[in-house]
Each structure stands twice: as C-alpha cells, then as structure tokens.
Amino acid sequence: MSELEKPAYHHGDLRAALLDAALALLAEGQEPSLRAVARRAGVSPMAPYRHYADREALLAAVAVRGIEGLKSTLEAADADAAPGQAVVAQAVAYVRYACDHPVLFRLMFGPSRPSAEHGICSAAQEVKDVLLGRLAHEAPQRFTPDYALGCWALIHGLAQLVVEGLLAETDPDPLGNGLIERAVQAMLTRTAEA
Amino acid sequence: MSELEKPAYHHGDLRAALLDAALALLAEGQEPSLRAVARRAGVSPMAPYRHYADREALLAAVAVRGIEGLKSTLEAADADAAPGQAVVAQAVAYVRYACDHPVLFRLMFGPSRPSAEHGICSAAQEVKDVLLGRLAHEAPQRFTPDYALGCWALIHGLAQLVVEGLLAETDPDPLGNGLIERAVQAMLTRTAEA
DNA sequence: TGTACATCAGTGAACGCGCGTTCACTGATGTAC
DNA sequence: TGTACATCAGTGAACGCGCGTTCACTGATGTAC
Q: Are B109 and B102 in contact (CB under 8 A)?
C-alpha cells in the first residue's frame, strides 16, 4: 500500500527512532549531533525537540541505552563463565564492548557525558554491581566495597587504554592475544604485599 | 622602555607562548581551539601556523606537555613515599593530577587525543614505566609486564572514574576520604584466588 | 660601515562549514456534542 | 453518524556562532658584498 511508500506525517514512534538513529551514527563512528540524528531519522531538524528538551537530553538517553547494552553483555558473559572465572570473562566482555562501540563508550563514560541529573551516575554504578555481583555471592569474605571499586577501575581502565589506542604501539591486539585476561588474572591472584 | 609597552611584531618565542596559552585555557576548563589559543597569546588566528602544521599538531604538543607534567608529579610522589607505599602514593598523585587538570587529562588520554604519529603512545607508556619503576626494582619477582599493565589500568581507571564524576553520587570526595588508597590497597594485597 | 635583498614571522579579511536553537507555520489526530 | 475545534507532531526558513583554514599581504630581521 501507499502506507509503506509515503512516510507518515506522524511518525509513530519518533522518540525511539531518534535513539536508533543516534546509535547508528555512533556505530559508524560519527558524533551524533542533533541535526545529524534528525537527518538520519528522516525528519526535520526541529522534530527532536518534540521528544527531547535539548541536545543534552537526547544524548543522555543514548548514553543510558549504551549502559544498558553493556550491562546485558556483562550478564551474558557472567552466565557463560566457568566458576571462578566470572570476573575475567566479564573483563574481556567489557573491553570488547568498548572496542566494538568506541564512540558510544566515550559518550557513556567520557567528557561529553551529560551531567548527573540524567541518572547516568547510578546507571554506571549498576555496571559495577553487575561486574561484581557473582563474586559477592561466591566469595563474600573477600568482597568489600573497596575491592569492588578496584576491580571496576581495573577493568574500566583496561577498556579505556585499549579503546583510546594507548597500548597500540606495544600491543596491537590485546583482546586477541589474551593480554586482557592475563592482566586481570595478574591483579586478582597476587599474594599479600606487606 | 617602549620595548615593554608595544608588543614586538616578532614575538620571540611564540611557539612556547602558544603552548602556555593552551594550558592556561585548559586550566580554565575551556577547549583550546586554534583560534582561542591564538587569541589568548595575543596574536592573529593565522600566527600559530608558523609553528604548528595544524590544530592537531598543536594539541599533540600540549598533550605531550601534560604527560611530562604527570610524569614529574608521579616521580615526586614516588620519591616522597615510604618503602612499600610507592604505588599507592603514586596512584593518589595520578588521580589528583587528573582532578586538578580534568580537561588536559582528557586531551592527554581521551578521544580528541591526536593519533599515534605524534608520539603520545610512547609518552603514555613512559607514564606506566614511571608508575611501576620502583616496584620493578624493589620486588622484581612479582613484577611482570601483565602485572604492570594491570596496575596502570587500575590507577588510570580510578582517575577516569573520578574525573568524569562517575563516583560523585555515591562518593563525593574520593581523594579526601581515602577511597583511592583503600581501593588500590585492596587490589594489591589480595590473596591468591584459585 | 652601508646598502640590497632574501627570508622569516607575523597580519587581517574572507571562505564555507555544521552546529543548536528561534520562530511562525501547517497537516494530522482525536474528542465533545 | 457528523461536525467543530482543540491539541498534537511535525515542517522549513532563518539566526548567530565559533571554528579551521585559504589567501595575499607587510613589517622586521639578518646576511653578503
């Protein structure tokens, strides 16, 4: 029918379509400006303002979606992991997610990330909880808030270093050659220092 | 004399002055665009092109200077640290440096960081070497490349999380209340897992 | 010591760009009677 | 069931902005003879 040919004046679910458009742009490595997102969604530059207060609000929604995606990825890795290997498996999944979606990853955790009122802070904390959830359950005696933060920082730092290419010169393929696993293993299996 | 009043047509050391101008802008939290840097240095928008090929080259020079600054800070912290506390002391110094210069820190390690040919990759690796230098010397048996990368990632990740405000909701002052020390300590003093 | 001239280091106007956002609008939808 | 009208969801032209970079230039410096 002509329903399919002529784009409806009323889009139906432009709100979601805008999010998808932004994610598509990010997947191509482009910064999702308001205009670019609207263009991608096949809509005039002003249309997004019906659904988002401004540029920041739209990007915040995208960032939250990215964090949801990371959480799902971590949960899947956690479910598939052998006993005692949950943290290492999730670390690899974390870094891979960052590498697969570098621009999105920066938006989620980087400087252009919109401010706290959009709930990104707590969404990020949930990432930490997912990361450490199984460990807290399996080995509660060694699980402390400080340790949890340390693990998150370790994994997040690895992801940052890899995604920004800071290891590229010495190590071109840290996911492929097992460097990530080994670095995490090395940090988790140290004996007491003092 | 009038030497001091009228700005010389030939600046003298515009190259260095441009770097200082960029750092001053960064210290104020502004992005140093080419035009803004020139403006700040009291010079026409085109003047920087005498000294830097383009925007990227100038920012790369700024980033390298930032990395030098971080290295000096780490070395000072290392020198002042009690035996066995070098890594923790340097972690605190690392995070503090990031908090003191958030925009510069992002430029050094973030998405806008110019690509590898400007030598930032290797400069970053030197940061790792400074971080782990004393440990390699004091306890060579536990020092491995994997462990070194893990330590760097841990500290770098903490700095990222703090500077981007991702801990702000649960922990408003992680440097003041010792959270950083405790998280690093917790990671370094674990007993073997398997 | 004086002069001609090449080179160096800056100026300043202008370009085209994409951006976020404003404004007044119009076509489509839904609801009350 | 039909109609009037409010509301909703989009359009499209225009704004002012700062940006990186181009171009042709000019004033200052240094060097060879």
A: no
Cα gap B100→B167, rounded to integer Å: 16
Helix segments in A1-85, DSSP class H: 2-5, 14-27, 34-40, 55-80
Percent of chain B past pLDDT 90, that is, above it, reads 74
CA of B29 to C1' of D19 (A): 18
Q: Is the pLDDT of residue B12 over 90?
A: no
Q: Which residue has the tokens 């919109």?
A: A114
Query: Is residue A161 within 8 Å of B148, Cβ to Cβ?
Result: no
Give the total residue count for chain B.
194
Chain A to chain B Cβ contacts (< 8 Å): 161
Q: What's the rounded Cα separation, in Å, for the pair A72 and A67?
A: 9
User: What is the distance between the alpha carbons of residues A105 and A110, in angstroms, rounded to a whole number?
Assistant: 8
Q: Mean pLDDT per segment of 10 residues, for chain A of length 194 residues?
A: 49 92 97 97 97 94 96 96 93 98 94 66 91 85 92 98 92 95 91 43
Look at residues B194, B124, B182 and name the one whose alpha carbon lies nearest to residue B153: B124
- Which letter does DSSP use for residue B41 in this model? T
Sequence letter at residue A34: L
Please state the rounded mean pLDDT for residues B138-156. 92
Tokens, residue A188: 């988790």
pTM reported for the whole predicted model = 0.92
Measured from Cα to the C1' atom, the residue closest to C27 is A9
Q: What is the DSSP string of B81-117?
A: SPTT-HHHHHHHHHHHHHHHSHHHHHHHHSTTS--GG
pLDDT band at B169 (very low <50, low <70, confident <90, very high): confident
CA distances to A147, A174, A187 from B137, in Å: 26, 26, 18
Residue with tokens 């990671």: B187
The answer to whether residue B30 scores a pLDDT higher than 80 is yes
Chain A residues in contact with B152 by the CB 8 A cut-off are 157, 161
Query: Which among B84, B153, B188 has the least Cβ separation from residue A158?
Result: B153
Instruction: Report whether pLDDT(B50) > 50.
Output: yes
